[in-house]
## 1
Amino acid sequence: MRSVKCCLNAGFILIAVAAFLSQAFTATSVAVPASSCYALDNSSRLLDFSDWIGETFVYDGKDADIVIRFCKDVESRSQAGYVDFGRFDKFNYFVAGSGPVDLIQEFYNGDLLNCESTFDKMGRTAQVNIICGNCLNGQCKGRQGCICNVTYESTCRAIVELAIPCEKPGLRVFEGFTVGFHPRSWEIVYNGMTQMGFEKPHHDFSFSTEQPHVTLYLTAIASLANLVQKPVVKVFPENGLEVKLLGTGATGKPPTTLSPSTLLVDWRCLKAQNTPYEVNITIPVEGYAPVEFFLTKMCEYTQNQEGDATRGWATFGIISCIFMVLSTLFCCGGFIYKTRVERQ
């Protein structure tokens, strides 16, 4: 029996170790959430509150009630009616707090009545200080949370303290890191998060066979740029598309805002197929989740070796030069012959 127990214990230990190692080696990148209702905490970890959008919290006040619709708006409700204290959109602030406040939401563009000239003419505004857990006074021990306190800086601005059970922090985001198409036109990665359309392969948006390469630029905060490592590329299917990474970005040169790195994705079709090839580029970052994105490439026909193409252009150039020399000689000979005939 002891031997059986020892074998079972050893088996459980091996399974646990294998599970740990599998999680350690399958760290994924961070894709931007589907909504703008998210924030990065003080350790740069992602908190996604997309499932909380519209969740209602009510605070019973003496003269009026304050109602928060999470990631939507803040209202004051009384018998006289509703007063809007601001709305939330993707341009509003949802940032990390300090001290007992974990996160801060800002709401702008509320009702203008008697607040036409306050806060850069943005009407009534509200600041929601979010505490992950319970209120400091011990209130609000329910699952969905509640409003702990409401104060008014003026008739045009409300400060609301909200306690909620925050989402579990996600991966650590390398803030300030950007990858985009060069010349600058579209961002693939913004603020360390892969943008929609590049977080997974999309066969409907593929580069054509004729496009021999794609140039990308990389930028990061100067003080953290040395954490960026050399990119790694994987292709699926593995055979049929040759991909090379060139440029300063491929060598691991630290990219900064003032001195961006360039990453040239050079690809060549070795085998034609009806579906696009999937090109996965991963940029490891020391101490953070890796940056990962996908590009897709069509191969409707095979392409010659780069050397063959170079030799082809060289041959074309030589033939063109010979043709130009012969044309010049022919014209000169014709002119000389015509001159002699006219003199006779």
## 2
Amino acid sequence: MTDDNNSEGSESKLSDELNRLLQSLGSPNIDTVSGVFGLWHELVGDQVASHVTPIKLDRGRLLIEVDDPAWSTHMKFLERDICTSLSHHTGTTISGIDIRVKSGRANS
């Protein structure tokens, strides 16, 4: 029993340390980061998730990578809805999305 309690305490300390590190780097806490990345597929749906990947959350802006330039245009139209939904589900403000097209994409 003491091992389980000690393990839980260690996990809590590790989580606290990670949150302090993230905060010192100007990043959101671990719950926010895991919420954005963990909920991505559920919030954007199968079709978008198969072409668009969240890369980084930095100072309230989400960097995403698209597999085709057409998805870049599509994501600009969805930006407000995605930011609102992510902000609601994570409890932190996502102010905007930055988009990059995946390099090395083969021409079809």
## 3
Amino acid sequence: MARNSFLRKIRKKAKAVSATAAVLALALSGCSVSTSSTAAVTGKAGTSIEGAVELFDANAAHNVSIVWDEDDYDTMIAAYETDSDKAWISADITIDGTLIKNVGVRLKGNSTLRSLGGAQSGGGGMGQGGAADGTMPTDLPTDMAGGMGGRGGTPPEGAGGTMPTDMPTDMAKGGVGGAPGGMGDSSNISADDPASLPLLIRFDKYVDGTEYEGLTQLALRPGTPVINEALALSVTAATGQSTQRYAYTTYSVNGSATQTRLLLENPDEAYGESIDDGNSVVFKADADSSFSYQGDDLSVYEDQFKQLNKTDTQDATPIVAFLKWLDGADDATFDAELANWVDVDSFAKYVATQNLLANSDDMAGPGQNYYLSYDLSTKKISVISWDLNLALSGNATASPDESLSMGGGGMGGKGGGLGGNSLKTRFLASDTFKLLYDSAYQELYTQVFAEGTAQSLLASITESIPASDDLTKEEIAEKSKTLGTFLTQRGEALEKALAN
């Protein structure tokens, strides 16, 4: 898909004209520019920079602005349009008044970026963006219905693989894989609106040792205000599970109108060391990874499971050993020995949480959104959630025994696209682990819905979301109300299901 170069040129000229007009206006009025609101403290490159305001303080107002060279930006977009390459460019970023120069910036996402073109665009797909018109694709494999079913992979009676009909009417736009309607459209991005794009910001890309408040990376999430993602992150944390920190901010690029965006901690080495008090090795699953045994050569797994920490002393051997065992284990062996490899209590809680949050793109989804944590003391593996932008959207009435993964089981081959994860599928199909799962689910339901944690967190999050040029307080309130309706429906559906 070729970029609209004509629109790009107009955009550049418009900015130049606006800048010239501003200078002339100041000259004619005899005014001088006040530096009190625009001057920034420059952080020293190669050091750990402390911000004027704690970045993840929800009670503080945050502002982020990025400045980059327009030609560099065009090169970055062209690289993605040509072969889906996410090329890095240099930029200067100001966070809450602190300027950090020469940071690395690149596009971030997979299906989210499909509207930009690229070698793998292929239309809307079933990823975060969904179909262009928000509808379900019609060319799915005919046997995919199993992935939308219950514990054994079959759809619950009356489901038929169809979308629920009792969702809030303004959520229908998103559908499965679409934007959480009423909460922020993550597919509404354009190369002609640079501020709309999801980005990965890396402070030490060009200058080694540069950190901001101990972070080397930040993810600028797509869409606005994506309250569902923020709430899912908060619920995960409130239930005692590892997750990622976030903050809402007003955001602009090269002096553009401001947008309201979600900034998310992008797991790095320090994040890995924060898990289990530094006693675990953490791996990020790539979107094209395969949760399967592919031989003993560790190099085969390097790009599929990126190791975040302890790279000098540890490697992926425990992960490969587990995959080898999983590949050869029959059902009886799986039931008898899984607890030797996996923290089954933690895993039951993870799987139950994804269903509770109605997340259709977890470790078994097409995005393969998860981290693996290997505890060096217990020698067991746990799963950490990631990329929750499809949580708390979609099917509000799904039962605890119903699979919400978009890809179905057993389809997690390399580049498989539709997802699937054999560990999750077999765990949910096992009668041995049913009591563990049911117990974890009941406990989560009680805390999150029956005790009102979700609604309370929603109120707090809504208060923290700043208005911007592109988002009014009234719009924020309306989107929060939509999500509140979803929570009510979800809670009522689960109360009924768990009572049976």
